[in-house]
């Protein structure tokens, strides 16, 4: 027997041995994998346990670990259905490690625990993005590019089990601006603190971000039983303040104000605020510790939170200047704005009129994001007018990256002009360069 003939069977044997040593796991779903969301005959059990009321729900599994780029180490099954204008989701997670579930108050700290997440992009890679989180207790948190203070009413219940934990969620379709779409991009995620693992439904080695909707799966037939109106409902939030006090302390006063949002198209709205009386007092009280650095406050006024995600967009930069910081805008008497999306374009513009002061800004971002490439052009202008002082800041941020090679580049520029700019050449900003990234760095 020749050496070549002996070598071939040996290679086959080693290959078979290697194959047997690989972990046995289901092949993860690929981006674009679609499932139709079945209509359930009645609301399923929302006690944190999956019982027979979920038997008609669609079933999928989280088979890939996004963090380590390998099959998920522990199984997670997800059940998805809809009824009466609600999206129903249940997670059943097996976990041998200690379950971290310290948070009992709804809020952003939920992501410091083990958690499960439903990510939704009703208009694909364009439009608004939504994410709903719950820890094993059922403590909730949610985010959206629609509003930086997104706080809709929805429910979640979690319970621990001998094998891990399970969570049930009920999300009203009406709290998601879908633009009339019944085919939504979606991702289902489970995070485990003990292993730092991120189990996902759809997976591609090229994906560099778990929030990139280009690599999500697809939920079809959403709203089949109770279609949600393409155009969201108008929103109005009036308020009345009154004060009874002696004249020496200012006397009796009263004040009426209003925040309102009026839809123009399915994905755009006119926003107004008349005589607002909102402030950052509750945030101020949490940040009174002395510090050598300027404090950065979170905006809580509805007029600005509804537009917060449209401004200060950058593709890449090393030290991005923040051209718009709305907490620096004092109390104003009237505010008018337009915000929304149209295909690949996000846009917003506002004018806030105060006592001898006006603040205005405009922004438009054109972006393309798919499994092959992503690029963006973001234009923004911010103006401030005070007695004797005017300021005008304009920025342009651009960038491109190839999703397969992970090579790209970016270029940003800006300029500040106004009363206090004595030398325009000293008020310009330029930054650019090539970039390279991998799926994990």
pLDDT < 50 runs, ≥5 residues:
1-25
| Separation of the first and last Cα atoms | 50 Å
Number of strands: 24
Coarse structural class: mainly beta
Gross geometry = globular
Fraction in beta strands: 35-45%
SSE string, helix = H, strand = E? HEEEEEEEEEEEEEEEEEHHEEEEEEE
Describe this protein with a few key phrases.
441 residues; mainly beta; ten-stranded antiparallel sheet; 3 helices; 24 strands
Structure, described:
This protein has 441 residues and is mainly beta. 6% of the residues lie in helices and 43% in strands. It has a ten-stranded antiparallel beta sheet, with no helix packed on it.
What is the topology?
Blueprint: H1 3-21, E1 34-36, E2 58-61, E3 64-65, E4 70-71, E5 76-83, E6 86-94, E7 115-121, E8 130-134, E9 140-144, E10 155-161, E11 164-172, E12 184-192, E13 197-200, E14 217-220, E15 235-243, E16 253-265, E17 268-274, H2 281-284, H3 302-305, E18 334-342, E19 345-354, E20 357-369, E21 373-386, E22 389-402, E23 407-418, E24 428-436
Parallel strand pairs: 1-14
Antiparallel strand pairs: 2-5, 3-4, 3-13, 5-6, 6-11, 7-8, 7-12, 8-9, 10-11, 12-13, 12-14, 15-16, 16-17, 17-18, 18-19, 19-20, 20-21, 21-22, 22-23, 23-24
Task: Describe the structure concisely.
The protein is mainly β and 441 residues long. The chain has 3 helices and 24 strands.
């Amino acid at each position: 027997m020749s050496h070549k003939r002996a070598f071939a069977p040996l290679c086959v044997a080693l290959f078979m041995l290697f194959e047997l040593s690989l972990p046995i796991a289901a092949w993860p779903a690929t981006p674009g994998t679609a499932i139709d969301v079945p209509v359930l005959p009645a609301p399923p059990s929302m006690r944190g346990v999956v019982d027979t009321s979920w038997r008609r729900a669609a079933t999928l599994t989280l088979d890939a670990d996004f963090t380590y780029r390998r099959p998920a180490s522990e199984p997670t099954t997800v059940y998805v259905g809809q009824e009466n204008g609600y999206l129903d989701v249940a997670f059943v997670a097996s976990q041998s490690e200690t379950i971290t579930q310290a948070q009992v108050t709804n809020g952003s700290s939920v992501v410091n625990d083990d958690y499960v997440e439903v990510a939704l992009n009703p208009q694909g890679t364009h439009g608004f993005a939504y994410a709903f989180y719950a820890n094993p207790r059922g403590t909730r948190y949610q985010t959206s590019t629609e509003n930086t203070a997104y706080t809709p009413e929805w429910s979640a219940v979690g319970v621990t089990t001998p094998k891990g934990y399970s969570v049930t969620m009920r999300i009203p379709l009406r709290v998601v601006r879908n633009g009339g779409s019944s085919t939504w991009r979606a991702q289902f995620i489970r995070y485990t603190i003990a292993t730092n693992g991120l189990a996902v439904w759809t997976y591609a080695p090229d994906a560099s971000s778990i929030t990139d909707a280009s690599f999500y799966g697809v939920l079809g037939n959403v709203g089949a039983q109770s279609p949600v109106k393409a155009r969201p409902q108008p929103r109005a939030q009036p308020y009345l303040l009154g004060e009874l006090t002696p004249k020496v302390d200012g006397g009796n006063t009263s004040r009426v104000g209003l925040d309102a949002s009026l839809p123009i198209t399915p994905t755009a709205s006119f926003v107004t605020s008349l005589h607002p009386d909102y402030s950052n007092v509750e945030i101020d009280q949490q940040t009174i510790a002395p510090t050598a650095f300027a404090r950065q406050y979170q905006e809580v006024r509805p007029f600005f939170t509804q537009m917060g995600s449209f401004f200060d967009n950058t593709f890449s930069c090393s030290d991005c200047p923040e051209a718009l910081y709305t907490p620096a805008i004092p109390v104003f008497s009237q505010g008018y704005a337009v915000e929304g999306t149209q295909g690949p374009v996000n846009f917003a513009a506002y004018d806030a009129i105060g006592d001898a002061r006006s603040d205005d800004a405009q922004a438009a971002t054109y972006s393309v994001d798919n499994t092959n490439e992503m690029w963006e052009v973001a234009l923004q202008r911010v103006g401030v007018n005070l007695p004797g002082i005017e300021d005008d800041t304009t920025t342009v941020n651009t960038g491109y990256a190839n999703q397969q090679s992970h090579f790209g580049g970016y270029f940003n520029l800006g300029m500040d002009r106004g009363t206090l700019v004595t030398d325009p050449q000293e008020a310009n900003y330029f930054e650019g360069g090539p970039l390279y990234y991998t799926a994990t760095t």
